[in-house]
Amino acid sequence: MCAGNDMFHSGSGGKTSKSVAAMALSTVCVVAMASPASADLINKAVAAALFNGVAVTSQESTANVPITPARRALGVSVVAADFDGGVDGGPEVGAGDTLAFTIGVTNQGNVTLSGVAPKLEALTFAGRRQEQSNPAGEADATVALAPGETREFRLVYTLSAEDAYSAAGVENAVASVWSASASGGPVEIAQAERTDTIAAAPALEISKSYAFAEDNGTQGSADAGDIIVYSYIVRNVGNVALSDVHVVDRHGSDEAHALTLDSSAYAGALGNGEGQWDMSETTPAKFGANEDANGGDAVFGKLGVGGAVTFIYTHRVTQEEFDAQ
Ligand SMILES: [Ca+2]
Ligand SMILES: [Ca+2]
Ligand SMILES: [Ca+2]
Asked: Which residue of 2, 46, 86, 222 is 20 to 30 Å from 208, comparing CA positions?
């Protein structure tokens, strides 16, 4: 590199064969080069001038400047982790929905690094480790980072049924550990950790139907004394298991209700006779199991996600109920 003489920096051994005044009329060239095998920045300076059109040069003056050792280091931070429950099915977070991580990777060393990418070290749902490799996204991009530079990567993970339903409603049950990588040799990396919660979304759906077991008076219409079999299919459409599932069916249009059929208040045996409740599993749970340890009542103990149970009540229409319409 060549510069005006005001840029001249003296090192050691800066002798010249001509006066400083002569040099002031000319330029000073400083040659700088770095050797990868050396920890020094090698400098060789030569002074040059003219005297009556004839070149005058000095000897070489060397001043090797020690350079800072190369340090390859990446810092990682989890900038954000966003669940999208609307990808698959309802708005609650469940199977097929996504968890998008935004990972910041910073070059904390003093040399440019290439092939930089975030790396998922571990992802657990309610303590169960997910063995999938990196989530889909920009992790495969080959990125170069200058010292001090940060790049954010977005990676999208798709939840399995087991991921979603084992962790839903459990505080900080989703845990991730992140690091990063770069090409061209070892890199110092400080890992980053984060925990997240899949919000519980308890939800039930009921579908009611009826059929006449005894149809007196007007056919196909309820008369006092008819026997109607009511069926209620109750489905868990949320993302968490539900306990003590039962049906409350209020007959009559006024506030007092002429009759309330409440399966949780039933103390008799299950069956299909008049005045009896019956109950059975209709659909297995998508995750976990439907469980009803206590079979002696008309309350279903635990309905798993996606599971359905059918309640049946065999009812003789009362005069009061008929009058209340
Ligand atoms: Ca969903
Ligand atoms: Ca009838
Ligand atoms: Ca029960």
From this structure: 86
